[in-house]
């Protein structure tokens, strides 16, 4: 099958997330990276292009240049999709321009800086009918998809409690000065990161995972955020109370100062009949709990899983696939959409997930500012 | 060494918690059960006494009878300590009478129904100088004590986040009618259980564990409780935001409707230098996390532990001791206190822990009633 | 119910295994320790008796003295059962004398030094009809008993492979001189420990667990033992190939020099329909594996378990019981037998398990001596 | 950097191992698949080529055709390396032809059918100085490489015991007729699979892992193999005693009938100072045990690891990479060798590992045939 011609904005030398996107696109084997704007520094951008074997003709100085030059090409050579993997503040303007000029977009999260921008992109996607894929990578794991299917089938009965966590510790060493890493520090600056560090960077993944697996919408949030140390302008830590309905409540706990935690994203959904628990660091294990039956461990590559989980894993049982494969699953879904092939809803997160995420982040920040009060996620 | 003569209120036929207290008292081998009021039904009480080989002379109809008769005995025969293992509402009146009449008391939690009662007991204990031991059993585990020691030594640096959980699922089957157990149902009735089910029964253990291991006091709480189902009068589920100081926040999550969860009490304390995680279901594993070192697993019966942990475990490494031994450790500490022997603070929870617990429960309930606002734990 | 009067040989000050037996006997609450020969040093023996609150009249200088004096007592005061918890070489002579004089016996393993002695004890037990209980403690765990029941019911289909392990590391530090412990060193001396250290002390537990859980008999063994270091006279490490039948083979791996291993006894039984795995260090988890179903985790205190497992655990689900409770379960079964009450086969290991164990140890040692050849366990 | 032109023999439609090789080659991004003989059925081979976007000109009918046609091309177009991913029996003849004609080779294991063939290939590689990479995939995991480095540095002291396991269950369902899969059944036929099923297919991985991580050579083996069921011609199960020296012994346990086991490759190396344990199903966890220190868990993406482990993982800590990334690491090492770049010994398994593997398989089979006697691996 012919590969989809892809460009990339950001993700040049030393950027781990750009590398992840490229690997994922190669794993699923539906894409060919043909050009991009890999770095704000044009020389470094070209250096990167050479290193990757990309024609310097298509290594552009700016997104505007890229759009202009690509549009000048014949349709069968032109970039079809562009992956935006820049710091947060640039997602929105670049995604918008690209959509307006007819390019499909793969976009890192958080999708925008404001809710208004998010709604604008949603409108634009609706209008243009282009594919917009937001890389909430964790939705690409087979057992997350199995969890979604099990819940959709009603296996849990009435859902009674939802508890998600995203704990990391890496900022800890930065704010306490024992680490000289500075690459990540744009995350601590409002102008680059937006209104939130912890919730915007990772809490929103927990939020997305809840809505993705349960199909429910969070209605209201009440948050208590913590900047942890004098001089830090954004939240590095916080807890968010969630309400789904009168009788269904939940909680998101998220922190970047849990020293020693690596990438501790977990979710537990408790129902009247059974419960499900999953954790990102051992992504191939999904636990089903029940009061009357032994706990069951679902794993990929088994006939007892639903089709969606099974098509998201390629190796035989016990051969662990990981996060690159999860992202590749999202790229694969995105490719299907771009090609106009049938795909399962949930194969890739959409612009609507991005809108929900921005509403979550802003409601959480607002709740905290107003003194830890309930704020509706309209 | 001569055994301490012990009585028991409650804990007769079929009562698992009374059985647990007796086993613990036999394991530590410092006590001899000589009498009590084992059941409100005197015939059943006697039946129990016969079964246990306890003289019917000392199987009493009421606590008043017990006190009167025991006081009439010579001091070297008289009961020295009485364990109160009745439903919640009776802890306070019995404990009070017993203390007023010169008996040491071992008391199940929650210690009282109100904060005022708790303060009254605290006053009484101060005045009488009697031993009062509150069985927050989980503080008897060796690795909980090791955690306390590691934190006291400053191993974690500045504490930055605290997260405790206590999830059970057993009420789930009761409220959904798939279980005919009714023994526990007094826990759902305010007149027997007090102002709270979930927080009063189990959330308070999580609270106690936080204060026990960190030596910190929770200053304020904001809670969101959930009765889960129409017709339930008390909370079965809830989340409590915690504030220790301006820059230290935390959370307690507690629920009795997490189907399939058994006795899921966990605690994580995150510091600027290192972090500690412990869970009750695998109580012999204490995890120390750090950004710069491999995660370490502390286990009992090793030279690297502090003395307090080591004296709380008797078997060689790898021979798992469990919850009865944890409770026996508390009984052992209580015995030392009764005998006037030296003991380590923390060998048994005191009346002050009971006061703190009652303040926690009432503040949490108040916060929820007032619309999820911050309430000080004065 | 009236307690059974128990004596003890060995197990005095500092002896952890004697302490374990006493705790277990107190936990099940069927026994009363009334006397014994607690130490070869009579003064230390008396010191221990005082410490335990045992009458010095019944603290004897020798087993012969004990037998003579107890037989002189009226039947309703006389010791009924004696626990033999001495070093290995003394199990046989003491157990024999005790049986010959009408005492029930609880005996530590290995039961004897030779197969002949074991057969002699078996004969004696048959003749006297006394209760003889061999403390293969691990058979007292609820989930081991559940495993036995599941296999007996045919849940696994045809058994195809059996793999048991018993790894410890504690001798490591002794033989490399970084540890000054010497208490255990009699285990390295043939005159005290018998023909084997590793296989006699721990390998035999793995063997027993296999026969206990599967109901199968090992027919032949081929072993390769390792004394690890110059100057060590006994095996500290070894592997034993097992044959149960033409098409069913297995292996026991056992070592005392696996540094860092604590008490790593595990068993896995693989069948044509399903498989079961259990490990002693997390004894409340039994894993059932299958090719077509999610792995299931059986835990105590659930309706899905068989009666034998359920009567072997007293706390609600999620409250971990440990090794003392396992040993107490064996004491409880022993008490039933002494009292002539009905009990389930498997509630305590018998003299026949002791015979099997001795045959195993001697066959393994013989196989190794003869150059790693097959030796029948007749 | 210019990509290395790669061909492939086997691995067409439906072949999971060929797919794995291609994914790995794309992940490391050093290779470009330009042609091959993907299937014995030429039509299916072409179908596959179309599907993969490979020019039909380079989709060959046979390996001979491939060699002839490619050699006719100019050097800067010609295939440089060929991956041989056929059934076992074809590895040797194809690898030999390819080497003789100047192609670098990536070869699936087992490398050949006989030891003689293996030695012949080793000779050929020495003579031609071509790169020969044997895909013992598990050596590509970062924590396996960390284990190798820790052992090489002497962290464990004197090694005292080695225990490796490779348990699978998938053949179970085939031989008991509950599964209609037949793709794998060539593994049960001597003419396709060679002298062994279980040991040749998976036991040899455990053997390789031992020699890879410890740097030691197995000197002698004694095996007991099991065909499990009437009519099966090869071993499906077995245990192999290992001798490394007079005082160092070990064991490999391997089975294809352990129902419910997925891909249970584990290794434990016990030393006088510390021990290391690793398991394939959670490949990012390496456990270091010690008698005097808490167990440590090494994970990728940390400064405490050696360089070799760190260069084998690209994501930040806690983002699990899996088996495709392990294989990609081997492809990366292979690429360095082909390009004449510096690489670390161990970056890819060599023809010598293949020779060792064949010697292991044949010695094990011989030991079993001769009645379970010691056989030297010369």
Features:
five-stranded parallel β-sheet; 2 domains; nine-stranded mixed β-sheet; Dihydrodipicolinate Reductase, domain 2; Rossmann fold; 14 strands; alpha/beta; homotetramer; globular; 378 residues
CATH homologous superfamily of the largest domain in chain A? Dihydrodipicolinate Reductase, domain 2
**CA-CA gap between termini of chain A:** 43 Å
Q: What's the structural domain tally of chain A?
A: 2
Contiguous runs where pLDDT drops below 50 for at least 5 residues of chain A: none
Helical fraction of chain A: 25-40%
In which order are the strands of the major sheet of chain A placed?
13-12-11-10-6-9-8-7-14
CATH architecture of the largest domain in chain A: 2-Layer Sandwich
* Count of DSSP strands of chain A: 14
What class, by secondary structure content of chain A?
A: alpha/beta
Q: Biggest chain pair contact, residues each?
A: C-D, 50 and 50 residues
Strand content of chain A: 15-25%
Assembly state (oligomeric)? homotetramer
Give the C-alpha Rg of chain A: 21 Å
Query: What global shape of chain A is seen?
Result: globular
CATH fold assignment of the largest domain in chain A: Dihydrodipicolinate Reductase, domain 2
**Mean pLDDT of chain A, rounded to whole units?**
95
Identify the CATH class of the largest domain in chain A: Alpha Beta
H/E element order of chain A: EHEHHEHEHEHEHHHEEEEEEEHHHE
